[in-house]
Amino acid sequence: MIKTLIADDDIEMLQGLEHIIPWEEHGFTIVGKADNGSEALILVEQSLPDLLITDITMPGLNGLELIRRAKMINPGLKSVLLTCHEDFHFAKTALELESEDYLVKYTLTDEELLRTLRKVSAKYQAEQSQKAERSLSLNKLLARDNFFMSLVHQTPADPEQMADAVRVLNIALPPGSFQIIGVFADNLETLPPGTEVHITNCIATLLQEQPERNFFRYAENSWMILSWTSPAPGARSQNDLDFAKLLQQQVLEASHVSVSVTFSSACPALAGLRQAVDEACALRESYFYSEPGALVCQAQTFSNVDPHDLYQRYQAALKEILETGPASRLREWMEQSLRSLEDAKYPPAIVKSLFRRMLVDMEAAAGRHSITFEGFHLAGDTLGRYRAVLSEVIRFFLERLEESRGGSRRKEIQRVIDYIDGHLGENIRCERMAKYVNMNSSYFSRLFKTEMGVSFSDYLIQRRMERASVLLANSESSIDEIAKTVGIENPSYFYRVYKKITGKTPGKVRNQSL
C-alpha cells in the first residue's frame, strides 16, 4: 500500500477526498488528514507517508512550503497539488517542486483523481523495484567480497560449499595462473562521501563482459581484481595495462577522483591469493613520489637513510628558522626540503614520519604565540598530498603570526616567550628570564603577569604540559622521556601536574593517540 496523507483547510473538501474513491482497492491507504499545513507537517514526521496530497492556499504554512519541508524529512515523497484555479503558474510550481500533478479541486472527478493516482503508483512501483534490484545487487557484491576475503585469509571451506558459492554468486575462477590488480583511491582521506560506491560500480560495469576477471572490495577505498590474462609468470599483459588505464579514465569521469593501480606477480593458484594481495598493497609505496593516477608494475628502489639522522638534520634547520626568523623563510625552506627529499627518494614511511615530527615542531612553535593548529591531518599516498597540507599549515601559521604580532605585547615579554618555547627542557626560572631581558626579578614578574594575564610560573608549567600533550600524541618517546624533554626530571611530579592541568593522565592521552 502507498501511504497517503491529505491536507486541506476546506473541511468539506478534506472529507470528500477521503470518500471520493475506494483508496485501498487501488493500492493506497490514508494514514492521516490535516486541515492546516503545520498539523500536516507533524503527521509527515509521525507517519512518513509516500504521497502527500495538499491544497496550495492554506493559512500559516501553505502547501508549497509544506511540500518543501516534508521532502526534507522524506526526500522520496511524492506530492500532488490541489488548487482552486487552472493556471499555468500552478503547473510551473508543480514542476519546480517535482510534484506528480496538480488538480483543480472544485471540478475534480473520481476519474481525474484515479488517473493521477495510477501515474503516482506506476512511478512508485518502478522506484521500489529499482531499490530492490540495487539491494539485491549490493547483497551479491557483499557476499562476493566475503567469499574472496575468506580466501585471502585462508579460511577453510568445504569444497561443496565453495562450489555452491561460486555458482550462486556467478564467480568466474578459470584454471591457470592469475595476477592481482590492486586499485587504490588516491589520498583516500580526502574522498567525498559516496566515492566508494562510484568506484565499485565502475569496476563492476567494466567487468560485466569479462569472465577472465573478478573483483572484490579489500579495504576502505581499495579493491582487488583477479585477472587470468597474464601470458606467463612474471610477464605483464598489455591487455591488463590497457584495462587499468580505461578503469582510471572511467573512475575519473564518474567520480572526479583519481585511482592508482598496482600489479602483482603472476600467481599459479588461489592458494597464493594472500601473497599476491600483499604484494599489490606493498606496491602502493612505490608511487609515493609520483603523481596521482599511477600505474605500478614493479617496486621502486629507495635510498637508505637513518631515520634519526634525517630528522636531526631537518630539525636543526627548522629550529633555527623558527627561533631566529624571519618566519617568512619558513615557506622557502620547506619547499627546498621537499625538493631535496623528492630527489633523494628516501623510503616513504621514513619521510612520512619526518613530516609528522616536523608538524609537531611547528605546532610547538605556534604555541609560543598562542596559535593553535586544528584540522590539519598529515596522511596520503603521494608526496604531493603532503606538500599541499604542509603548505596550508605554513600559510595558516604565518597569517596567525602576523595577527598576533599586531598586538601590544612588550618586546621583552615576547623575547621571554620565544625563549621558553625553544628551551622548555632547561631549568628555566623567573630570575634567569628577568636577567635575560635586563630587568630586576620583582618588576619582571609583575610585568609578565600584566602582559600575559597569568604568573610566570603558571605560564611555564602550562606551556610544558601543552608541549607534553603534543609529544604524547605524536611521538614514540616514553612518558618519562617526554617529562624530561619538557624540563621535568621527576616522573611522579610530571604525572601529578599533568593530571591537574589537563584532567587526564599521560597514559590515557598516549593510549587515545594509538
Automatic annotation (TrEMBL):
Q: Locate the HTH araC/xylS-type domain: which residues?
A: 414-512
* Residues found modified as 4-aspartylphosphate: D55
Question: SMART domains, alphabetically?
Answer: HTH_ARAC, REC
Which Gene Ontology molecular-function terms are recorded?
A: DNA-binding transcription factor activity; sequence-specific DNA binding
- Every copy of the Response regulatory domain together lies at 3-120
**Keyword Transcription applies:** yes
Which UniProt keyword terms apply here? DNA-binding, Phosphoprotein, Transcription, Transcription regulation
Is Phosphoprotein there in the keyword field?
yes
What would be one Pfam family of this protein?
Response_reg
Give the UniProt record's GO annotations in the biological process aspect: phosphorelay signal transduction system
Q: What is this protein called?
A: AraC family two component transcriptional regulator
Could you tell me which species this protein originates from? Hydrogenispora ethanolica
